[in-house]
Design a protein that fits this description.
- By secondary structure, the protein is mainly β.
- 13% of the residues lie in helices and 43% in strands.
- It is globular and about 70 Å long.
- InterPro entries: Pectin_lyas_fold, Pectin_lyase_fold/virulence.
- This is Right handed beta helix domain-containing protein.
């Protein structure tokens, strides 16, 4: 009730407040942000009723003002003690308003989040901000229908992160953060700004986060450089309901466990979803395993895309040794810390004779820029125990899912001789691929122990295995197609294997054919078959 009254006063008594201002001698915007407006009005009612403004014309507002004061304990809502005790608020009470000055809007919203756990943005309109908003543990930020957050330049300068958690800069876990109803307008602000964290690259960025919820998120103008949502080093995240459109990745995850991505519509040139356990030096701040997740109820409507629906990126790393040859994005392990080479994607090879030993940050040694990325070491990175279900792929892609090693000037995911990462237990249920122009359902460039496909409709070649000369053992893979419909016309591969010495076991049962000229085949060595298709 109190929040309603305060909001009513703000929007319905502006003329009264403007008339009061000369006798009260205060700055309206600043007082709104700090709740002193009400204190001054109360003072006015008690001591200034003899002033010349018309009580009769403003009589309708005075009972509401009085009720506002007496509904608060001790009647003093402007005291700093009371402000600090408030656990939730309407952001308008702090001066966060549609069409207000972007700098003041950013300051107002930040103060509201600093002072309160729960902040609501209730009044429809476009709210411009010109700097990053930082969320602390237990912040819950709710946007009502018709509210849009628009990024604008700060005195001519761009900024990258729109929202980020407080602990991202110190590698300290935040927890219990929720954002609901955010509609974000990028407005062409697609570059990194101040306070960039190497490898953290999302308009919504969360690094060291537990119990995160993002719900009803919309962003329809993603540029070519920054992901819509980027989360790394996480435990228990839920991304529920959204629409993301643009050039770059929609949802980009680094290492973490327990995640749900559901009820999204995607229209992106690059990957709608990236599960990148290892990544470019500019695309993830840390490396490790991504595990125990569900991706469900999503639609891919992308036009002329270059990426995959889901990129599943693995990596392998080695200990430093004298004379080690390195390139951009390579990662080595030394003294129980992991260090990464930061460089340009120019193909240059570096030789390291002196190991990095610094505890944090970036340091140049032997002409190599070393970034200390983490002190919990891992020799492998990949994805395991993830289920993809109820997905509709409406567009054409080179592959819907790519189990991936990078090996180019940007990144070498697997360092020669490293322990081999084996991605594990990936399930695909009720996947519908409607375009015959999609080349592959799953493309495997990494070892994987099992692929289980159930109740899916495939109009593309099924699964291929592509060699990487640096990986000496691609291990055995079990593949099961359970009650799937094969709908591509003509001769096409169920399995194609180009990796010498790799072994594969294929099982199919309950298969259905929805093509007049369906001719399945198996290509490559090492494949044993137990199938109702042949």
């Amino acid at each position: 009730m109190l929040k309603f009254i305060k909001s009513y006063i703000f929007f319905e008594t502006q003329s009264t407040i403007d008339k009061l201002q000369p006798s009260l001698n205060f700055n309206k915007k600043n007082e709104l942000k700090n709740y002193f407006l009400y204190k001054n009005i109360r003072k006015f009612l008690g001591t200034q009723l003899s002033t010349s403004f018309s009580i009769r014309k403003n009589l309708v507002n005075i009972p509401l003002i009085i009720l506002c004061f007496y509904s608060c304990e001790k009647g003093d809502i402007a005291s700093q003690e009371t402000v600090n005790s408030i656990s939730n608020c309407n952001a308008a009470d702090y001066g966060f308003l549609p069409n207000a000055n972007p700098e003041e809007n950013a300051i107002s919203l930040q103060k509201a989040l600093n002072d309160n756990d729960v902040v609501e943005v209730n009044y429809p309109g476009i709210y411009e901000i010109d700097t990053t908003i930082i969320l602390k543990s237990n912040n819950k930020l709710y946007f009502k229908d018709g509210v849009y957050i628009k990024k604008v330049k700060n005195k001519g300068n761009s900024f990258g992160y729109t929202f980020i958690n407080k602990g991202a800069t110190t590698k300290t876990y935040d927890q219990n953060i929720t954002i609901k109803g955010l509609k974000l307008i990028i407005n062409g602000l697609d570059g990194h700004g101040e306070n960039y964290i190497q490898g953290l690259n999302g308009h919504l960025s969360f690094f060291y986060i537990k119990n995160l919820i993002i719900e009803n998120f919309e962003c329809l103008d993603i540029g070519t450089s920054i992901f819509a949502i980027h989360i790394c080093t996480f435990d228990n995240i839920t991304l529920n309901r959204g629409h993301i459109k643009g050039k770059k990745d929609a949802i980009h995850l680094g290492r973490g466990k327990k995640f749900i991505i559901q009820n999204y519509t995607f229209n992106t040139f690059d990957d709608p979803i990236a599960l990148n356990a290892q990544d470019y030096d500019v695309s993830n701040p840390q490396v490790g395993w991504i595990e125990d997740g569900i991706v469900e109820n999503c639609i891919d409507l992308s036009e002329n895309p270059i990426g995959y629906f889901c990129r599943i990126l693995a990596g392998g790393f080695v200990d430093w040794y004298p004379g080690i040859k390195l390139q951009k994005s390579d990662i080595i392990i030394h003294n129980n810390r992991m260090y990464r080479v930061i460089a340009e994607p120019d193909g240059k090879i570096y030789t390291s004779q002196t190991p990095p030993n610094h505890l944090f940050g970036l340091k140049q040694i032997d002409g190599i820029n070393w970034l200390m990325i983490q002190d919990d070491i891992t020799y492998t990175a990949g994805v395991r125990n993830v289920c993809f279900k109820n997905l509709a792929i409406e567009t054409k892609r080179l592959a819907v899912f790519s189990l991936h090693f990078d090996n180019d000037n940007w990144s070498r995911s697997y360092y020669p001789g490293a322990e081999i990462p084996i991605q594990n237990n990936l399930r695909f249920e009720n996947i519908t691929i409607k375009s015959q122009e999609t080349w592959r359902f799953i493309s495997c460039r990494t070892p994987i122990n099992s692929l289980y496909i159930r109740n899916s409709y495939l109009k593309c070649y099924a699964i291929d295995f592509i060699k990487n000369s640096e990986v000496k053992d691609f291990k055995h893979t079990n593949i099961t197609f359970d009650n799937c419909t094969f709908a591509r016309e003509g001769t096409w591969d169920i399995i194609a294997n180009e990796i010498p010495d790799k072994t594969i076991t294929l099982k199919t049962f309950g298969s259905r054919i929805d093509a007049s000229d369906f001719q399945p085949q198996i290509n490559g060595p090492g494949i044993s078959i137990d199938s109702d298709l042949f």
